[in-house]
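can u do me a favor
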């Protein structure tokens, strides 16, 4: 059964503070008058008032005998009663007919409606509608509670709400299952039955084969995986489409994935068939993304190999380059000799120590490979990858998002070339014309692709280079969103997920109110343009007085701020805390925090709502320890008594999804945020984002070699609050542009909601600045190489003499922004309403597009916002220091998270991508649990020091950090002893802030702790 504390179903606070008592449980004059109208007896006035005040808070009528003593005493004293009321008095009232009369009168006074049959029928509809998109009973109950309160219904017993929510969910699930089952043919049902059996000569079922993941993408593996994708396509095409809400699809997918063939076969036919269909189609959609990612990665690898070969070639021919430079020097020296022209020519001829025809040939060869011209080196490695790349294209069945179907024609030509082996092909044979069909081809590619054959216009193409040019062009359009993969998840047409016209019109005013931005394009541009003018003029005016910025030889120089020194008082307090932090073990830390937060409430079987294991708290703590500290099931079973390897991994498989870990992490953040101490480190209004490399084995597609860090792995990407705790985590591939994910902080729904986001230089681009502005987020990244960035002017011809070197010739195209603002607003509204994530759209806007007008509009708006930010960055040393401090917190968290990930040599051993993502989620959870544990014990220790007479100031507290590890033993004998007494946490303990206490005369007085 769902517990009341998991929902918004109110309970009376066991130990309310003075503020709560005053604001919630103090009778008003009108309420006193009402109570006197329904009873003359003084002691009945008290019990009736207690019934009224508790009903106001709870939304229902509860027995007053269960009311906490502080509330009883407060209500009695505010009514003038000085004698105490015994529990027997309250219990007698609860059983009396007088209470029934009072409840009737109070219900009428509060305008509460009895639920009744009609109300229950309406509530059933609400529960069923909520169950269509929600799985957790607590979430369904919260929707029911919201509806009951909105219509002024008296809340029924919690058990009734829980039963109604459970039945609604079960009914909706059965409706979905029946709907899918009825659409299946007999042949499809037989196919599903075959998948659940092990064929003769096979070691595993077809169901297990569906769960195959791509491994290290060698030629053989890619061939086999693409064949697997093709089999999945054939299977998926034989099944009907599934029309149920996305949230339920994800839940059913996770449910099906957690079951093996034998477990799935035990379900009744409709459920078995429906889960199988959903999983098959989901796996097919995922493999389409895999095919697109493989295609992009194969081409990136080709480019890397070509670049490496170019560098090798240039190194090998360095001597020839040196000889050409020496030859040029001798020629110039000979030319500069005094004498006649004939004498100089003779001197030049004397420098020629090689045959003259060889020198131009050497020059031409050098120029052909000068700079980064790697294209000639693509031809050789392409031969081995050609069939794989063309197979990827066949599987993806790409479609264009625009009316320009030039790429579609190129795909047809590429298909024609597949069976051609000639080195060159006439344009006429390909059905292409010069130049209209080659506007997409860059100058560097044209040099290798086109053959003129002595004519003014090209008449032939070099087949291999033409194919390569088309393949790279398709890769760019796939990344920019100009092409999409029908049916995929990440690479499908993003426009289909944006809000429709009706929703956009309804949500736009609310969006404008929330962001504070004008929603009319003309007014938006007018406001922004004036703001940019004001910023440029004010920074230009103040620049001569800016002691931290100057121009040297036309280049901007920003003086680095001095690193703040740790004061003696901070160092002293830090040392005293180290002495007082009691030694503990990592497992005790996890057990304490799990107990404080009731973490086990989130761990329930995917196929039900009630836990099916004994000692759930023990299993939760050991599972979080197993995966969050990276010991793995085998080592965890060796290290913990009474736990087998199967048990160590079972809960993760059957109970845990990304959503479960996110809910548990959210609880940690919310409890942490109630402490006073983190408030000295930050306001919670800002966060920083940064990635750190996690080592992995090569046997999966996410693992890539990271040039900056070295070694194979993936990137853990975290949003860390200015209060030091991590709000969000993601696991992305090496080489992914991290800025794509910086605005996903909007998916964080904890009590800490930052409005300013910091990051390093990789956390920004024009589209990211633009989208952040439209979402009401102040993006303030750390900027390296600022002197190389070009600033844009708000108006042509406007001069800023003190900042002249910063501004190029670029002027903002305000008409472009105004024209496409509604399209950009639609994207922002879609993100705000949860229809699409910021990373989904930024993945498309992160690559330049010739066709996508939305890209150009976002880029232009981004030029405005980035210029305005850079001017602030130059103008204020305090802002630069703030950004540096914020990004330092991210780096410190990265180190702290890796400290907690001490098992398995710090290498993620999982090869399944969803399990890799869960490992990062587990580690994020563990790191936050340790941070919360540290803050609780730091708060206790500081309180003890204050009692002993130590003076603690806000400045000293602000210099502390919760990233403390010296007192925690990560190694040795691990135990999770549920009989050990866990000291309750006290998030309400005050350190320096004023708190309210009751004085003897019942007045409320602020005092210093």
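np, heres the sequence
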């Amino acid at each position: 059964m769902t517990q009341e504390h998991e929902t918004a179903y109110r309970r009376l606070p066991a130990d309310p503070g003075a503020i709560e008592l005053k604001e919630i449980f103090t009778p008003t004059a009108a309420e006193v008058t009402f109570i006197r109208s329904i009873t003359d007896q003084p002691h009945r006035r008290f019990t009736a008032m207690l019934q009224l005040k508790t009903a106001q808070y709870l939304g229902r009528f509860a027995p007053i005998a269960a009311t906490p003593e502080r509330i009883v005493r407060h209500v009695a004293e505010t009514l003038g009663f000085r004698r105490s009321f015994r529990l027997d008095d309250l219990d007698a009232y609860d059983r009396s007919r007088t209470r029934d009369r009072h409840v009737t009168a109070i219900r009428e006074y509060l305008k509460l409606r009895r639920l009744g049959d009609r109300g229950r029928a309406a509530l059933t509809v609400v529960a069923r509608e909520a169950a269509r998109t929600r799985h957790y009973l607590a979430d369904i109950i919260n929707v029911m509670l919201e509806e009951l309160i909105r219509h002024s219904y008296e809340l029924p017993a919690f058990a009734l709400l829980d039963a109604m929510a459970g039945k609604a969910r079960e009914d909706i699930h059965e409706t979905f299952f029946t709907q899918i089952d009825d659409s299946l043919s007999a042949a499809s049902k037989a196919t599903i039955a075959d998948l659940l059996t092990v064929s003769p000569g096979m070691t595993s079922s077809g169901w297990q084969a569906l769960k195959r993941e791509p491994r290290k993408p060698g030629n053989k593996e890619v061939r086999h995986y693409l064949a697997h994708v093709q089999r999945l396509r054939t299977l998926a095409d034989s099944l009907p489409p599934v029309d149920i809400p996305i949230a339920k699809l994800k839940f059913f997918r996770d449910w099906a994935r957690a079951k093996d063939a034998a477990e799935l076969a035990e379900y009744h036919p409709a459920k078995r068939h429906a889960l199988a269909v959903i999983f098959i189609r989901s796996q097919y959609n995922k493999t389409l993304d895999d095919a697109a990612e493989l295609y992009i990665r194969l081409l990136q690898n080709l480019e890397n190999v070509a670049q490496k070969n170019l560098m090798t070639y240039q190194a090998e021919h360095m001597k020839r380059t040196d000889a050409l430079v020496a030859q040029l020097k001798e020629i110039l020296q000979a030319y500069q000799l005094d004498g006649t022209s004939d004498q100089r020519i003779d001197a030049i001829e004397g420098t020629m120590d090689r045959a003259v025809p060889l020198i131009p040939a050497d020059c031409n060869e050098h120029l052909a490979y000068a700079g980064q011209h790697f294209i000639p080196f693509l031809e050789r490695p392409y031969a081995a990858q050609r069939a794989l790349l063309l197979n990827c294209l066949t599987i993806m069945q790409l479609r264009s998002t625009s009316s320009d179907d030039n790429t579609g024609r190129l795909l047809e030509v590429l298909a024609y070339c597949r069976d051609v082996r000639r080195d060159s092909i006439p344009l006429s044979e390909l059905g292409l014309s010069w130049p209209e069909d080659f506007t997409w081809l860059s100058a560097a590619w044209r040099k290798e692709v086109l053959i003129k054959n002595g004519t003014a216009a090209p008449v032939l193409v070099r087949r291999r280079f033409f194919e390569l040019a088309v393949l790279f062009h398709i890769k760019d359009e796939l990344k920019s969103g100009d092409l999409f993969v029908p049916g995929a998840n990440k690479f499908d047409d993003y426009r289909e997920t944006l809000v429709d016209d009706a929703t956009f019109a309804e949500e736009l005013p609310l969006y404008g109110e929330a962001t504070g931005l004008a929603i009319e394009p003309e007014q938006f541009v007018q406001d922004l343009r004036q703001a940019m003018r004001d910023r440029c003029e004010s920074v230009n005016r103040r620049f001569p007085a800016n002691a931290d910025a100057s121009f040297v030889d036309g280049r901007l120089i920003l003086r680095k701020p001095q690193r703040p020194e740790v004061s003696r008082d901070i160092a002293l307090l830090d040392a005293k805390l180290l002495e007082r932090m009691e030694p503990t073990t990592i497992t005790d830390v996890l057990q304490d925090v799990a107990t404080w937060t009731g973490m086990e409430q989130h761990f329930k079987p995917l196929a039900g709502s009630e836990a099916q294991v004994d000692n759930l708290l023990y299993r939760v703590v050991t599972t979080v320890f197993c995966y969050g500290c990276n010991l793995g099931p085998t080592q965890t079973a060796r290290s913990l008594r009474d736990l087998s390897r199967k048990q160590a991994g079972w809960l993760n498989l059957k109970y845990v999804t990304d959503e479960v870990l996110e809910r548990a992490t959210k609880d940690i953040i919310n409890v942490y945020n109630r402490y006073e101490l983190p408030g000295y480190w930050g306001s919670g209004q800002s966060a920083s984002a940064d990635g750190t490399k996690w080592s992995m084995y090569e046997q999966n597609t996410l693992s890539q070699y990271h040039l900056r860090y070295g070694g194979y792995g993936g990137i853990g990407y975290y949003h860390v609050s200015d209060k030091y705790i991590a709000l969000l985590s993601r696991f992305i591939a090496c080489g992914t542009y991290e800025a794509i994910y910086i605005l996903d902080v909007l998916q964080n729904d904890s009590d800490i909601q930052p409005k300013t986001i910091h990051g390093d230089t990789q956390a920004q681009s024009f589209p990211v600045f633009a989208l952040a502005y439209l979402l009401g987020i102040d993006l303030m990244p750390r900027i390296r190489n600022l002197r190389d960035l070009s600033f844009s002017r708000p108006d042509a011809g406007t001069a800023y003499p003190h900042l002249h070197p910063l501004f190029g010739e670029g002027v903002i195209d305000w008409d472009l922004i105004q024209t496409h603002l509604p399209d950009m607003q639609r994207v922002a509204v879609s993100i705000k309403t949860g229809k699409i994530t910021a990373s989904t759209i930024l993945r498309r806007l992160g690559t330049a597009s010739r066709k996508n007008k939305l890209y150009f509009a976002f880029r232009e708006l981004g030029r405005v916002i980035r210029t305005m930010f850079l001017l602030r960055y130059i103008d204020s040393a305090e802002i630069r220091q703030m950004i540096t401090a914020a990004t330092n917190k991210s780096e410190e968290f990265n180190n702290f998270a890796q400290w907690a990930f001490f098992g398995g040599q710090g290498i993620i051993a999982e090869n399944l991508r969803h399990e890799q993502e869960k490992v990062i989620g587990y580690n994020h959870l563990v790191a936050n649990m340790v941070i919360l544990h540290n803050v609780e014990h730091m708060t206790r220790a500081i309180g003890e020091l204050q009692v002993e007479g130590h003076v603690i100031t806000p400045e000293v507290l602000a210099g502390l950090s919760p990233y403390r590890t010296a007192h925690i033993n990560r190694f040795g004998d691990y135990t999770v002893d549920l009989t050990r007494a866990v000291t309750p946490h006290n998030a309400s303990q005050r350190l320096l802030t004023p708190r309210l206490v009751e004085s003897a005369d019942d007045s409320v007085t602020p005092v210093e702790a």
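Confidence is low (pLDDT under 50) at residues 995-1009. hope that helps!!
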